Amino acid sequence: MNWKKASNVNSKTPLIIIAGPTGVGKTSLSIILAREFGGEIVNADSMQVYRLMDIGTAKPSPEERRLAPHHLLDIVYPDEVYNAARYRQDAEEAIGDIARRNKCAFVVGGTGLYIKALTRGLFYFPATDENVRQSLRDGMEKNGLDRLYAELKEVDPEAAEKIHGHDKVRIMRALEVFRLTGKPISVYQSEHEFSDSKYDTLKIGLELDRDKLYERIELRACEMLEAGLIDEVRGLLAAGYAKDLKPMQSLGYRHVIRYLEDEYTFDEMMRTMIRDTRRYAKRQLTWFRGDPEIRWYTPPNTDKIVRQVRLFL
To answer: Would you call 295 helix, strand, or coil by DSSP?
Structure first.
């Protein structure tokens, strides 16, 4: 495939995005496409960047990685700061390297913010204010995070719809922006005009019937535990990674930690892990369905997707 020909038409690098909720089948599709078109895979999952966190993040297995080159897996340790800005820089470097070798990059993952940062750029809010932030911390200690979340629902319901009620960092930041400016963070987001993308993108979205997706999520949770997720979490804690680190509070890991600390029985751990993963998948779908550029497919429509990619390239 002549990738240079495709990119020279409009001086943009061809880029194929494969997005969708957790458990929908993005990894298997990306490998099929990478092998079919001689491409390489760039991770867009915010948890799969972390070393030592393999089972709970559903990273591609060593066997799967041998089938196609993968980038941006296992690049930082759990106690290192990693965010959308750093992801954009790392992904652009990886995609540039792939393009220079006349290969096509397949960006694959369910972290909508990372994909948005890569394809549309980042926007910036007012600088943080320690006095406002301390006031929010004091309010949370006194009244709980639920009270702050209720306040966010009142002043910025659009932002609250996109932010989970347990996401302390994002709730506090959204309220901080509102208190500093009197303007909802969602308004800043909608008003921001992104610079023209350097990529010519084809966005492929995968979706399943809800019951089927939920069934897959439940099966995956069971498979993770059978594969040794509890021992993986024990190992991370034994290695000195604090339980309150952001990656350690992600899906699966926080549930196992509570089990290990006797806050949950095994059944409670399983139930809440599956419940929270279903809720996360729902939020992912809400995010991606807000992007009109995504073309949706229901697995296993591999042939249709292959034809679409071939037409694009």
So the answer is: strand
Q: Tell me the pTM.
A: 0.80
- Angle subtended at Cα 90 by Cα 84 and Cα 95, rounded to the nearest 5 degrees: 120
Strand, helix or coil at 219?
A: helix
Which of 17, 23, 42 lies closest to 207 in space, CA to CA?
23
Please say whether the beta carbons of 117 and 84 come within 8 A: yes
Q: What confidence tens digit (pLDDT) does each residue in 137-186 have? A: 999 999 999 999 999 999 999 999 989 999 998 999 999 999 988 989 88
Query: 151 vs 147, 174, 241, CA distance in Å?
Result: 6, 10, 33
For residue 53, the 8-state DSSP code is -
Task: Give me the domains of the chain, ranges plus CATH numbers.
Answer: 3-122+194-312 (3.40.50.300), 130-191 (1.10.20.140)
Do the Cβ atoms of 294 and 204 come closer than 8 Å? Answer: yes
